[in-house]
């Protein structure tokens, strides 16, 4: 296994830290590739991969220089050619050197981090990149190089990564509460250092916030870094009402600040597709989440039609790696948004008009004795 793809609605872990602990050994060299570097319109940013590699692995630099001198047009070639000639092949040549080979044997393989592959706009380029990468590793199975990819479960990516050279990891299987707790704790500690109001409060009343209050805040955040960031900013940023961070913290436990825009914008990506209203209604109203095949059966449609709607909504809805695992929301506030007419109307009146079969099923409390409750007419 030379490639690991970490997928989820929103990647919430420190990518490099996670990758270095993802059974790749003690990776002693990490160079990053971010999604904008794979954009054909990104100009000179395309060349940052070889630069990163030369900095992380000096032994590769001479081979990169040789390739460019032998073929100056490489810098204007397509992405796949650049990666093969300026990243993969120079690394392969450098890996044969005694010092680098010994280093990789002692410390483990080198690691390339590709962050946010799903954000690349050119789907065809992404597919060709994946195919070429897999072909390279198939021909060079012993090379001390690993690739760590973070991405949402986009169809054009997932289908090409279903390969025995790839290990797929779903963030749903890794609780992010610890990451949220660390994020909040770190942000609050930094704020204590710079905020004289908080310092004065602590001198008189003791540490703030209390462990109980912090734990309640982390529980309320529910694994969403977007939510965590919004709530933290609300707590510490000055307001017109002259309230203090200590005053605002209790209010955050009942707040949903600023997510309506995110929900509206994300839902609008799929609202034109067939069965959008029915699928979203099922997710919003059913007391127990259903898998993709369950929603398809409930609505009398094909599984691929459910996937087609949900694949654009992964910023707010967890899509499992397989059809038999339940679809869940990234945060409970999405259900409140979908079931509040004045809020969801910004997306589409159609989204709020819950289909009668779904309403009937929700009122009846589920599948009953195993058959679907469908509203006549």
Radius of gyration: 25 Å
Classified by CATH, the class of the largest domain is Alpha Beta
**Approximately how much beta-strand content do the residues carry?**
5-15%
What structural category characterises the helix and strand content? alpha/beta
Query: Which architecture name of the largest domain does CATH use?
Result: 3-Layer(aba) Sandwich
- N-C termini distance: 53 Å
Q: Tell me, briefly, the overall form.
A: globular
Could you please say which CATH topology of the largest domain applies here?
A: Rossmann fold
What does this protein structure show overall?
The protein has helices at 15-20, 48-56, 61-70, 79-95, 98-107, 123-139, 155-161, 177-194, 196-205, 211-221, 225-236, 245-252, 259-267, 276-285, 292-299, 303-310, 333-338, 341-344, 349-352, 356-364, and strands spanning 3-7, 30-34, 110-115, 145-151, 166-170, 317-318, 328-329. It has three domains: 3-173, Rossmann fold (3-Layer(aba) Sandwich), CATH 3.40.50; 177-257, no CATH class; 261-364. With 377 residues, the chain is an alpha/beta fold. It is built from 20 helices and seven strands. The strands form two sheets. It has a five-stranded parallel beta sheet. The protein has a two-stranded antiparallel ribbon with strand order 6-7. The protein starts with a strand and ends in a 13-residue tail after the last helix. Strand 3 (110-115), helix 6 and strand 4 (145-151) form a beta-alpha-beta unit. The longest helix has 18 residues, at 177-194. Keywords: Repeat.
